[in-house]
Amino acid sequence: MSPTVRAIAIIGSGPAGYTAALYAARANLAPLVFEGSVSSGGALMSTTGVENFPGFPGGIQGPDLMALLRQQAAEFGAELVTEDVVEVDLAPAAKRLRTESGVEYDVQAVIVATGAGYRELGLADERRLTGYGVSWCATCDGAFYKEKEVAVVGGGDSALEEALFLTRFARSVTVVHRRDTLRASAVLQDRARDNPRISFAWNKEIIGLRGQDRLTGVQLADARSGDLSEVPADGLFVAIGHLPRSDLFRDQLELTAGGHIRVQSPTTATSVPGVFACGDVVDALYRQAITAAGSGCAAALDAQRFLAGLETPVAGSGFRPTGTVASRPAEPVRPATEEATMVRGSAVETVTDASFAGEVLDHDKPVLVDFWATWCSACQLMFPALADFAREYEGLIAVKKVDVDESPVTAEKYDIGSMPTLKLFRGGEVVHTIVGAKTKSSLVAELSQFLPARTP
Ligand code: NAP
């Protein structure tokens, strides 16, 4: 195939990435958008009502807002690739991106909009109890805490949003905050204080987690006196802010001390010509959906200006051979919905309470079971990765799905407390559990010791 160079690639798909895509697409640059195989939509995918994005009086659900932004970018010609970029070479003249499936793309300009990931408390048992009481996403896992006691740690907007959402299910919600004043907006503070199910543990730091197989409580230390206490908790939702996702660029772009990508403000230009950055990976100050969207717009305009100044711009309908850089063409776009249909088809069959024993426990091959729910956006974002995995290991390992609402007996038997959870069964026994959405390559890495060798 002839070598091709694309004008522009956007890495990331929150409000910043999709807005940059919309502007670049309207400039006829046919941008490639690497949505990330399990992070498409960014942080808003695990948010409930968004009341402060202009243009939506009455508010809009986070996932719905992202679906609209995505649709608008795609309608103008943005090419959406549901894969993670795992390697970048941002050399000033020719920029090369490689995805987890090994496809390489050469582009003239890059917009980095990778957002920020959840910050962890850093406690010894935090990872061990993730999925067994510890969670970062109330909209994903809250429904498992009906009439239970839960704690939320943090004092910002996220913590109060999580706490308010959790009152739909939990009997009581304790907000644990390390100071005695909240950082959250006044409207959320008022709502939380007015909610009879919410109480506050002020000036408290979480120093330990109780529980062997599941969380039973959190150990607290008073930030002033050092006095120790304990709060019983079936669930702990961690909402203590985010860390910029800049690791991929650490050796190639200048970062701030906090790990954000440094830009030449007020522009979005980074330390490398032709590379622009926007949204939460840059912003340590505002971190709003609307400011991210605004900076995505700025990044697309900056990139346009940069491309116009190149001697051999890749113009008009998107890409044409230049011969200046070796490259491989883009993979065809596979819309997430199409993949989701495939996953419900033959590659990944649904099993129920009634069919579980026959189709999973008595299976002669290992079976990977994906416990999911219709209301879990992360579960649905993971479908393409799961379908790819099922295709790759077809005949060697079976992949099945259990809708936890349709098959509550099985979900309860296997103590599913977080969405999505994947369990690998061999000879009727669970041999490995994975909690949280994964890319195909991380699924393969986590299951490597259980995967049968393939003959080439
Ligand atoms: P945030 O505003 O940075 O708040 C993080 C909270 O966690 C702070 O209260 C902080 O305490 C606490 N914290 C940080 N590290 C901690 C640790 N190691 N142990 C215990 N507590 C710790 O983060 P966010 O709430 O995720 O919000 C991020 C941005 O998104 C903000 O700009 C926010 O306005 C925006 N947002 C907006 C909405 C909305 O408008 N609906 C919803 C969610 C988020 P201190 O206060 O003591 O520093």
UniProtKB/TrEMBL annotation:
The keyword Acetylation does not apply. Residues 327-452 form the Thioredoxin domain. It catalyses: [thioredoxin]-dithiol + NADP(+) = [thioredoxin]-disulfide + NADPH + H(+). Transmembrane segments: none annotated. Its EC number is 1.8.1.9. SUPFAM superfamilies: FAD/NAD(P)-binding domain, Thioredoxin-like. Keywords: Disulfide bond, Electron transport, FAD, Flavoprotein, Oxidoreductase, Redox-active center, Transport. One of its GO terms (cellular component) is cytoplasm. InterPro entries: FAD/NAD-bd_sf, FAD/NAD-binding_dom, Ferredoxin-NADP_redctase_2, Pyr_nucl-diS_OxRdtase_2_AS, Thioredox_Rdtase, Thioredoxin, Thioredoxin-like_sf, Thioredoxin_domain. The keyword Flavoprotein applies. GO terms for molecular function: thioredoxin-disulfide reductase (NADPH) activity. Homodimer. Belongs to the class-II pyridine nucleotide-disulfide oxidoreductase family. NCBIfam families: thioredoxin, TRX_reduct. This is Thioredoxin reductase. The gene is trxB.
